[in-house]
Amino acid sequence: MSVEYKKTVILPQTDFPMRAGLPKMEPTLLAQWKDEDLYGKIRGISADREMFVLHDGPPYANGHLHIGHALNKILKDVITRSQQMLGKNAVYVPGWDCHGLPIEWKIEEQYRAKGKNKDDVPIAEFRKECREFAQKWLDVQREEFKRLGVMGDWDNPYVTMDYKAEASIARELGKFLMNGSLYMGSKPVMWSVVEKTALAEAEVEYHDHTSKTIYVRFPVTATSIEALKDATIVIWTTTPWTIPGNRAISYGAEIEYAVIEVTETAEEAWATVGEKMAVCTDLLEDLCKNGRITGHKVVATFKGSELEGTLSAHPFRGQGYDFDVPLLAADYVTTDTGTGFVHTAPTHGPDDYQTGLKYGLEIPEMVDGDGAYYPTVPMFAGKRIYDENGKESDANEAVIAKLVEVGALLSRGRLKHSYPCSWRSKAPIIYRTTPQWFISMQDNDLREKALKAIDETRFVPEAGRNRLHSMIANRPDWCVSRQRAWGVPITVFIDKNTRQPLRDQGVLDRVYEAFCAEGADAWFTRDPQEFLGDKYDAANYEQVTDVLDVWFDSGSTHAFVLEERQDLKWPADLYLEGSDQHRGWFHSSLLESCGTRGRAPYEAVLTHGFVLDGEGRKMSKSLGNVIAPNDIINKLGADILRLWVVSSDYHDDLRISHEIIERHSDIYRRLRNTLRFLLGNLDGFDDAERVADNELPELERWVLHRLSHLDDMVRKTTADFDFHTMFIELHNFCALDMSAFYLDIRKDALYCDAPSSLRRRAARTVMDRVFDCLVRWLAPVLCFTADEAWRSRYGAESSVHTETFNTVSDGWKDEALAAKWAKIRKLRRVVTGALELERAEKRIGASLDAAPKVYATAEYVEALDGLNLAEIAITSDIELITGDAPDGAYTLDDVAGVGVVSALAEGEKCERCWQTLPEVGSHAAHKTVCNRCADAVDEMGIAAAE
């Protein structure tokens, strides 16, 4: 009986499957991690190492995760795991934001659906429902985050509604109270009529909105400019409802103005022939067009600075608005739109307010929390700007009608523009002056401390520094109060006589102790006298019922998480969130920490972009382009989603679509196949087979050189948080250096060489090192697949996540060898191209059918001295000739000096290795195989039957 030679080929053996089956495999591995307390085991192993803390920016406990959550948490996990692999103790404690309007709004919606009124429910009961709602979604999100492969202390997260957390937040506010930074003041704040509360910058987004526009005349009553004495000042505004709040007109000192006399008007114009009006000369044409003024003459021109001392009358003078309206210089006046004169209502805008303060103007309270004028507002009491649904109500039209009645309206129109809206209700907001609690940016040098802290912080990318710096440099005082029920209360008592807040550390300490025991509900359920103690009579004090802005909550997390947990440290090494958090969490954390501790709570800040669809559009249910992370995970697995995160340049906006994810599935398969090939060909490998470095063939030493450079790259990109670059390099190593080159060449030796051959043992020695490095490098990204591969080789009780990156020898670096093999690979590319052409023309079936002639310059021939080019090119034979290639030879434009003339190999095809060689048939015992295969078969103890 003859030998069945194909059974003697040493084929790969592994239980690491080709098909990943990630949707089924990953939950199994998650359960195993939990059963073996992998996170706890890692903490024990690394307890004495340098600590690395990425402080988790708390997501909001409200609804299922979206793709932005997945991006954020995966990136955090990749960073934490990679720092752990660098040999640090990378602790990750997840957290949640639980207070605030979105949750309160959901409970109110449930009330409205049942016909209930929130105000009829005891506040403690209402807060209990909010707490239960937040807890429900916290639990849902926790499982969804874990399913992404995010490893952390999920059993002990931080939660802003925990009693101790609420106590700590109140204690942090108390520090501002005690150092004098916290004060109550009336300022214009962004106000949502729908939600009936003040909003922070981070709670506002901009949408297209169509506003009513008006040009209004203000009669001049006193001026040093002769031409103005019988003229009107014309202002333009997109908020007619603010006219009752007007107390001044602002101008630009360097702007040129003109007084014109109307000589001709179109039909239905409100301007009259002979009247005079003042306007910026650059905007005169616009004024005439919009006012239907078809003819005019310029009476005089003057600089804005000449307007000093000029007074005008309110359009509603004689009807409750009997005060002077002064003209005041302001540096924010521009000539882009309008008239060059800015209607100034100090109660309805931040610039207007500052002008009011500067010049001592009246700053009246005009509008209540429902968006209606107070009863004290002449003519317009009770008129509403927006209704409870955020739709325009009757205030605008009432003001416009009255302006027409008194002859003050010159023109009206409409303008579609970007307008601030609440990001929850999407309804337009208003600026409204109302008593609020503020933290001063000036007291205790908070602004200066924050700007200094920014200078001392590392930003990735660096552009984040300037963005945060400009926000802090220009921001007003921090409004920290909200007129809601679900949150940490502003734990302040106000003296009824002095109207000053009570500053007493003993009172604050009693509040802290009560909150630790009962949570912030204690503020609403306990007798205030319990907090005030024996020193003060509760009858003499008002208890504040506003709650804190949730950004103060999250801005305080460093205090009760980083400082108070024994497994963490303060400050954090890194804060990481989307770029919108320059005005959100990065911002509030910086101010809170600088105000109480004098420095930032972080050493570095990293920002990522937003997720867009495949065409670069924002995700929107109405567009039908929303992709939920669970959909991807259930179909393809979390590792595919993790691969998408690191393969994208997350410093910019990222794109995702089903087509993009499918492409990443293909990339994943190439990476997985590389791991599988390594595992299969390392079956049975042990140290007895290992070849010393100095005995390795050149090709293996080139691989070690590549590993050494890759190790440098991995460590640098990990330190730089540049996982996009790391992924590209590792993918190219697997796809180009390994699969398409090294493993392609060594497949023959692995399958067909005798087990004892140096070439085969050297290949397995190097593959062992490649696997050991590669699976560790991939572990922070493909956390499931890397661990599956590791356990497949080293046993189910082991985990790659308890390991660190290998210490790779600098002795492996050999730049001269690398340069030599770069030449060889260029030449090989020409040979491979020629063979592909031969296959396409069906002149050969496989590269082993060929024995081409390769013409090359001396430098290429020198590089190949002592090497087997047929082995490198995967042909049965090859002839290397120094000199120019003949006409018709195959060449590549980018590889000068190399040409290939194809030819068929001579001899018979080896039944075992499939090489075509003249020697096949010459071996007495093995007639159908080559000499190499005959020796291998004999070594393996298999002889031909007689």
Overall CATH architecture of the domain at 210-416: Alpha-Beta Complex
Q: CATH superfamily assignment of the domain at 210-416?
A: Valyl/Leucyl/Isoleucyl-tRNA synthetase, editing domain
Number of helices: 28
Radius of gyration equals 38 Å
Report the helical percentage: 25-40%
- Shape, per Cα inertia axes: elongated
Sketch the major β-sheet. Answer: 10 strands, mixed
CATH class of the domain at 210-416: Alpha Beta
What is the count of β-strands?
33
Which band does the percent of strand residues land in? 15-25%
Which stretches are low in confidence, meaning pLDDT under 50 for 5 or more residues running? none
The CATH topology of the domain at 210-416, please? Isoleucyl-tRNA Synthetase, domain 2
Our measurement of the CA-to-CA distance between the termini, rounded to an integer number of angstroms, reads 7 Å
What structural class do the secondary elements suggest? alpha/beta
**Mean pLDDT over the full residue set:** 93
Folded structure, characterized:
With about 950 residues, the chain is of the alpha/beta class. Among the domains are: about 5-15 and about 655-815, Isoleucyl-tRNA Synthetase, Domain 1 (Orthogonal Bundle), CATH 1.10.730.20; about 210-415, Alpha-Beta Complex (Isoleucyl-tRNA Synthetase, domain 2), CATH 3.90.740; about 820-905, 2-Layer Sandwich (hypothetical protein PF0899 fold), CATH 3.30.2320.20. Helices cover about 40% and strands about 20% of the residues. It is built from 28 helices and 33 strands. The strands form 9 sheets. Strands 7, 8, 9, 10, 11, 12, 13, 14, 15 and 16 form a 10-stranded mixed sheet that branches. Strand 7 and strand 8 (about 230-235) form a beta hairpin. Helix 1 packs across helix 24 and helix 20 runs antiparallel to helix 23. The longest helix has 30 residues, at about 725-750. The radius of gyration is 38 Å and the shape is elongated. It starts with about 20 loop residues before the first helix and ends in a 7-residue tail after the last helix. The mean pLDDT is about 95. Belongs to the class-I aminoacyl-tRNA synthetase family. IleS type 1 subfamily. Keywords: Aminoacyl-tRNA synthetase, ATP-binding, Cytoplasm, Ligase, Metal-binding, Nucleotide-binding, Protein biosynthesis, Zinc. Its cofactor is Zn(2+). It catalyses: tRNA(Ile) + L-isoleucine + ATP = L-isoleucyl-tRNA(Ile) + AMP + diphosphate.
